[in-house]
Amino acid sequence: MKFRTLLRHFRESFKNIGRNGWMTFASVSAVTVTLTLVGVFLVLMMNLNHIAGNVEKDVEVRAHIDNAANDDDIKAIGKQITEINGIESVIFSPKDEELTNLIDDLGDNGEAFKPFEQDNPLRDVYVIKTKSPQDVIKVAKKIEGFEYIQSVKYGQGYVEKLFSFVNIARNIGIVLIVGLLFTAMFLISNTIKITIVARRKEIEIMRLVGATNTFIRWPFFLEGLWLGVLGSIIPIGLIAVLYYNLYKYAAPQITFKFIDFLPANPFIYQVSAILIVIGAVIGIWGSLMSVRKFLKV
Amino acid sequence: MIEMIDVKKTYPNGVIAINGINVKIKPGEFVYVVGPSGAGKSTFIKMMYREEKPTSGNILVNGVSLPSIRNSKVPLFRRNIGMVFQDFKLLQTFTVYENVAFAMEVIEKEPEEIKKRVMEVLDLVGIKHKARMLPSELSGGEQQRVAIARSIVNDPKVVIADEPTGNLDPETSWEIMNIFEEINKRGTTLVMATHNRDIVNNIKRRVIAIESGKIVRDEHRGDYGYEI
After folding, report:
1. Model's pTM, two decimal places?
2. Burial code of A68-99, b = ≥16 C-beta within 10 A, e = fewer?
3. Which residues of chain A have pLDDT under 50?
4. Cβ of B76 under 8 Å from any chain A Cβ?
5. How is domain A60-154 classified at the CATH fold level?
6. How much is the ipTM here?
7. How far does A33 lie from chain B, in Å, by closest CA?
């Protein structure tokens, strides 16, 4: 194809947007409505995922070491733990430190534990973080089998519930987004299909005067692209403004430890990019699928 | 130029539209195709521009064997023939100029050449002054002029017209026929299916009459031959 012809296709696609004014309006509206929904869900889900991630990050394994272990044994245990797959960090916390932490954590009540400083009843502890928080249980089970390990604690019972809750929330989110995307594709491609069926005569005539299928497809391909991009403008603007204000004014009001929103700065751009790509892909796809029917390939 | 050899056409619903046709049309000829409605005239014409494929037999147009070309290559073949229809088949959202220019754009002609040639043919069919108008703003006769301009803009060797005067009043029909005669005089082969008795009887040319899917008459300077 000559470059001049490509320019012609661009020109033609812009003209067609104007020529089919109401049809363009219908398609762009369909894209706008569905992308707004998709966008809102995307923002919710990504933040939920982020919060879930924060909660998970606090999960750690605490391996208490038996008092019978000497320094060499403790070192050997540390080495063994490091060798387990999926370990992110292993920190040794001697029993003196454990007691100091306990006293500090309990504040005024901690004074009661002061007398134990002479004869510390606590154990030395390895604090282990895993790369994937969900590995905690597996790692804990392994460590339990090591020599000189008195007990392994990772919030048994509580952690399992947390993980299953997070997993369910994530799966529901994914299902919702995928479902919404399919609805969007269906709705948009149907709207575009209607606008193109109205133009089937146009395609027929183009074939009559000798236009190849590729030649006919190009302007439709570009039109689909413009429809998708035009349709994503309002959702992007809406979500950007809302999220920016939410992040700036509403988020600081929430002081609960784990609730922390994704920073507006990269996040708004990421969501915008995702929406524009979804819009463009669906627009092109809907347009090309509809033209295909009339091309007699 | 156009040759049909033992052509038969049966539609999927079992209707036999063409039942064994052999015909030869030489370069520069002007041929009327006549016959009652439903006799196979339309199928005969449609097979010439590969809108329909024969069930058996062969059709050669400009040396191309039509049954063997693929659907996707049909537009390439059509670049060498001009087509005019009863319902004009103009792009409603394109102006007169754009409609004619489109036929040149699809074969990627130079913009300068397109501009020059389009104005030339619009002048030839007498519609140059309405180049910026949309088809909906023109009368039937004017729209048919645009369609004719589009059919000849790429200098085809053959022009196929399917009832070009079917939607036009008698006076306009004569004007359109004048244009066709002019095109034929320049050496273009013209095949025209028609129901217009006056035209066939007054502008005497070769007449091919089709009835029940067969050629029943082929006269050098024939009459319409049917009562209306």
Report:
1. 0.72
2. ebeeeebeebbebbeebeebeebeebebeebb
3. none
4. yes
5. Alpha-Beta Plaits (3.30.70)
6. 0.83
7. 28
